[in-house]
Amino acid sequence: MADAPVSDQHAPGRGYAPGVWRRFALASLGVFFIGLGIIYAALIVLDPYDTGRFPTFMHPGVTDIEQRTASASHGRNPAFDAAIFGNSRGQLLDPARLSALTKLEFVQLTTPGSGPREQTVLMQYFIAHHEKVDAVVLAVDERWCDHDPALSVRFPFPFWLYRGNVEYLANLLNTRSISFARNRIRLMRGMATPGNRRGYRDYETGKVWNFHPHDAWPVAPASGPPPKPNGFFPAMRLLDDALARLPAQTPVVILMPPVYRTMLPVPNSQIAADLPACKAAFAARVAGRPRSAFLDFLLDTPISHDPANFMDHEHYRHVVAQMLERRIAAVLLGSDEPPGAGAGTGSPGMR
Amino acid sequence: MLFQSQGFILLFLPAAVLAYYAAAANAAARQSVLILASLVFYGWWDARFIPLLLGQILATWLLALWHARSGRHAALVLGILVNLASLATFKYLDFLIGSAEALTGIVLPRAHLVLPIGISFFSFQLISYLVDRMRRDAPIYPLRQFALFVLLFPHLIAGPIVRHNELVPQFDEDPRRDGMWARISLGLVLFTLGLAKKVLIADKLADIADPLFRRAIDTPLDLGEAWSATLAFTFQLFCDFSAYTEMAIGIALLFGLLLPENFRRPYVAADLRDFWRRWHITLSNFIRDYLYIPLGGSRHGAARYVLATLGAMGICGLWHGAGWTFAVWGLWHGVGLVACRFWQMLNRPMPWVVGWFITMLFVVVGWVLFRAADFSTASSMIVSLFGGHGLGGNISNPGLLLVAAAVSLFLPSAHEIRNSRPLPWRSIAVATAILAGFCVLEVGRGPPLSFIYFQF
Fold this sequence. Notes:
The complex is a heterodimer. By secondary structure, chain A is of the alpha/beta class. Chain A contains 9 helices and 5 strands; from the N terminus they run ααβαβαβαααβαβα. A 5-stranded parallel beta sheet of chain A has the order 2-1-3-4-5, sandwiched between helices. In chain A, helix 8 (270-286) links the parallel strand 4 (252-256) and strand 5 (293-296). In chain A, helix 3 packs parallel to helix 9 and helix 4 packs parallel to helix 7. Chain B has 2 domains: 26-173, no CATH class; 181-455, no CATH class. The longest helix of chain B has 36 residues, at 180-215. At the A-B interface, helix 1 and helix 6 of A face helix 1, helix 9 and helix 19 of B.
């Protein structure tokens, strides 16, 4: 034993018939690689997220209501020719109402908590999957005016689901995909209900409104000398790349939704100094496109002073969403008057 | 590249093993394959630091060679200084600047250097080789073998800390020698056990510990929260680091190499000295051989023993992280070891359960210092642990904590399994494959969390 190599001292396996350990190792490796190979092949065919990348016998649609993954299915649905992008500040814009107002077919592709990187990836995905895009609505917030070139992603986002096949295949093999594939099989067999076909997820209906902000919320001007405006907005490059894939005639509406007054930029702060240039940059992106506009509601208006317009400090209610939809529709229809104006559906909060 | 990532398990490791065995007949070729694989493995993290890593290896080898040819002791001292300087610059420079700033009140610029991963491990291995040369206990190895001794990817990032004479002689052994399939089988089992401990236990425990330790920075925790956080971290650290070791030993066995034991169920220790004989064994041995004994050890009187223990453990603490909380954690254990030894000298053994309880309480309180962001968070947590911020609250996910406790206390270590005549049953082979497959699928859900010891 003393002459045995270091790695063989007390070596396992002594006393067993030759070939026993070989069969053990090969059985283990065989089950592992063949098992994973079968699962992987099944996932490619079952297409758990309904991305339509490879031939499949599955029916379109998903049960998923999580926008980060469900948009892979909704975003390639040929039934839609227009889409809404953004984060939760654009989430309550109803694609069905907007479709009724504009005679287009809207799908909701907003993603809560997302920023410019996620939103422009979804725009590119939608554009790549549609030969004809009749309108794009983008709801933006202050994160678009950030100066950090890294454009950090705050919450995990499955970029791989919206990019090339290699990235997709490299990320497909996991228990989440298996669970999604099972749901798609159940959907196909009528054992599960599909998610909203337009990707709409309403955060107000069914909830009890309970927003009572206390007046002590400080909106005091920031102290010190006024900050110097910074006109460097790296997110605009991503927007330019996405818009460049659209025909010049495609209408684009960029919307900066309202927030409750406590969420407005603090006077004399850096973001307050930067916001005018940021808004101008958005306006420049839509200038020259037909039936396009930058709609700015991130302002200190009566809307932002009425708690009844909001579910919380940041998220407006249906009454505001409907007003925004009418304004968007007016732009897309090339009309001066919002559709339905004068029919008892005027702008809320402006009383 | 993380051991538990899909890219490592499904692509890198099979490719490296196949290439290694394809070149197995030629020692130089198979060693070169392992060096290349190790550089790819390290470069996957940050290729910028490959020149630093190779530079330290080459400088150490050249200085050892100079010493061998000239007999000049200064060459070895210079080698030690080079490695210490690298470690001090990349790991401790900002810590030293911050400490100087705190002492003098003068605002000083920080270097903000990126910490090269694994620098504490490979620097210590190189220093140990040079010290052994001083002790005339280390030969001059061919450069390829010396480089592989440091670079070998199973231990490069987070140990076990391997001494040259444990590893280099194995490089000449043909991996296809008698017992190859037994070694590969055991390697697969150990790797899978480590993978499961990391993915299914340690990372889940992090979901309990991390948010509570974060909240403790500005909000005192209640009793239940404090114990949830502390116990979760106690088991997370063990399951995480011992999992890494088991995976490292398992991978090395696939290449026909044996790495030393690093953990032997430390949470069953009934006294603190026994705990350190079971916890991070290769570091404990390193500290003993290269710090504690040179500082005087236990053979030069009580005062010298106390100083040697506190000095060695203080440095051991700082090795874990560039912060005073780590130094105090090391000193905490130094004080505990001294107290333990003096108690044992009284020759009044206490019941095993009492000794185990005191040891665990001591260790667990120490982990608070180890994990907390700063002293104020640590003190707040410790006060919470003893009910100082209220006696309410519940233990989070007690089921998971119980499973983690059972695994920590009862699951045999890698070498215990290896030495216990494992059974070559096909059912075990299939169960191993299914467990590994499930872990691979679970890991694929999202970006894997890094091993805790990578930061050291």
